[in-house]
Amino acid sequence: MNQVNGYLYDPHTHTAETSKCGHLPAAEVVDRYVAKGFTGLVVTDHLHPEYLSRVDTQHNWDAVMDHYLSGYHASKARGDQVGLDVILGAELRFPENDNDYLVYGIDEQWLRSNPYVCCMSAREFFAKFHDQVLIIHAHPYRDGNTVVFEDAVHGSEIINGNPRHDNGNDKALALCRRHPEYYRLAGSDTHQAGDEARSGVILPRRVTDSYAYKALIEHMEFHLWSPENQSFVDADEQMRKERQA
User: Fold this and answer.
1) Whether 62 contacts 112, CB under 8 Å
2) Is 88 part of a structural domain of the chain?
3) How far is CA 36 from CA 22, 97, 244, in A?
4) Residue 1 lies in a domain
5) Element holding 32 (H helix, E strand)
């Protein structure tokens, strides 16, 4: 672990309790991040039509949310025990394609009060919620994807650390060069052992909820961290300097 001047958080993680593709129980995810010296993580379990087809057998949104939040609750309980900040986020996918969007600035009440948000289109979601939540395109060019709705996000991951995909980080960086107003983020996209703690953000102070995390991102009070992708970290820092000049 490289020396970090600040508090290290991973804004892109998953749990086995909620995400079908997650292979690590929530408590184990937390323990692995504690062992790696992180201060916190954001649980961004998948919420998309395929998930609904698997769990929404009674067409009961509250029951869906009980299941969906189980991974976060288990993470939070373990985090409280061991001193790791666990924050609620979400990773949405809409019916139109396989794009994924990380959403921050939410809580349980927001999720329960906005049923079936993943059944909208990306642009419909942005039009309705862009002034409430932070919407970050996750790995926009993963595995050759070319369908990117550049007008329906606040920013993009330029570093996705998942080791089993061609994440297209270079193309995501080029996307952000075209849109210097975008927020640029980094996350590990943790699903199984070995995924954890590959990328993250350094914050100037600890945060314990999604609203505080969103506020730091919007005020540019963060820096990217990814020892395996230092050139992208450097590119982000250079873009910051250019914007401030």
Assistant:
1) yes
2) yes
3) 19, 35, 33
4) no
5) helix 26-35
User: Distances in Å between the alpha carbon of 192 and those of 32, 98, 159, 166, 183?
Assistant: 11, 21, 18, 17, 27
Residue 155 CA to residue 158 CA, distance in Å, equals 9
The answer to pTM > 0.85 is yes
> CA quadruple 56, 60, 61, 62: dihedral positive or negative?
negative
Counted domains in the chain: 1
CATH number at residue 153: 3.20.20.140
Q: Is residue 2 part of a domain?
A: no
User: Helices 70-82 & 26-35, crossing angle to 10 degrees?
Assistant: 40
**Dist. CA 91–CA 138, nearest whole Å:** 8
Sign (positive or negative) of CA dihedral 21, 27, 30, 31: negative
Which range marks the domain in which residue 150 is found?
7-244
What's the CA gap between 156 and 94, in Å, rounded? 17
Domain assignment of residue 89, yes or no: yes
Q: Could you report the per-residue pLDDT of 148-201, keeping only the tens digit for each?
A: 999 999 999 999 999 988 999 999 999 999 999 999 999 999 999 999 999 999
Count of Cβ atoms closer than 10 Å to residue 95 Cβ:
12
> Under a CB-based contact definition with an 8 Å cutoff, are residues 67 and 19 in contact?
no
